[in-house]
């Protein structure tokens, strides 16, 4: 599905949140690899589960055609600096929900880009009959957990010792959900 573009201006930075289009595929492939290497809050390390330009073109095409999917990008001066996806499915028993994921280049942390992507995704879900948004977050990512709680997400579960990070220690993944009645 697609949304209307929206412009934001925070801390002297102007950015646009908009639906991804196929022209974004090459940039998304490169940005994803970079973001994965900048934080351990995500599931992948840099280059893991690599998606090339044609892979992103297919994801964007599928998400645009699906009423239960939304692929958004954050753009600064024509450059993609982050993105988010809401991914649903066609199974009748779970068609009421989507899974949300978000990532932003480290250079652009602190400008509420992740929050803006989340707000746009929530608005889309609430406006399109999506009843539940789920997500997973590393237990040490307190800033993200606080943000999700601010927007009505609740802890639904815990995956114990779910990820091993560069320090060799195991960390829990928190499962969160937001239900729109």
Q: Could you characterize what this model shows?
A:
This protein is of the alpha+beta class and 181 residues long. It is 28% helix and 35% strand. The chain has a domain at 6-130: 3-Layer(aba) Sandwich (Aminopeptidase). It has 4 helices and 8 strands. The chain has an 8-stranded mixed beta sheet with strand order 1-2-3-4-5-6-8-7, with helices on both faces. Strand 3 (70-76) and strand 4 form a beta hairpin. Helix 1 packs across helix 2 (53-65). The longest helix has 15 residues, at 113-127. The model has no long low-confidence stretch (mean pLDDT 97).
List the helices and strands and how they pair.
Elements: E1 6-10, E2 13-19, H1 25-38, H2 53-65, E3 70-76, E4 79-87, E5 97-104, H3 113-127, E6 132-138, H4 142-150, E7 154-164, E8 170-179
Parallel strand pairs: 5-6
Antiparallel strand pairs: 1-2, 2-3, 3-4, 4-5, 6-8, 7-8
Helix pairs in contact: 1-2
Search tags:
35% strand, 8 strands, 8-stranded mixed sheet, Aminopeptidase, 181 residues, alpha+beta
Structural class: alpha+beta
User: Strand share of the residues?
Assistant: 35-45%
Mind telling me which CATH architecture of the domain at 6-130 this is? 3-Layer(aba) Sandwich
Q: Rg, please? A: 16 Å
The helical percent reads 25-40%
- CATH homologous superfamily of the domain at 6-130 - what is it? Gcn5-related N-acetyltransferase (GNAT)
Strand order of the largest sheet: 1-2-3-4-5-6-8-7
Shape, principal axes of CA atoms: globular
Uncertain segments: none
Q: Tally the helices.
A: 4
| Topology, number of strands | 8
Tell me the major beta sheet.
Answer: 8 strands, mixed
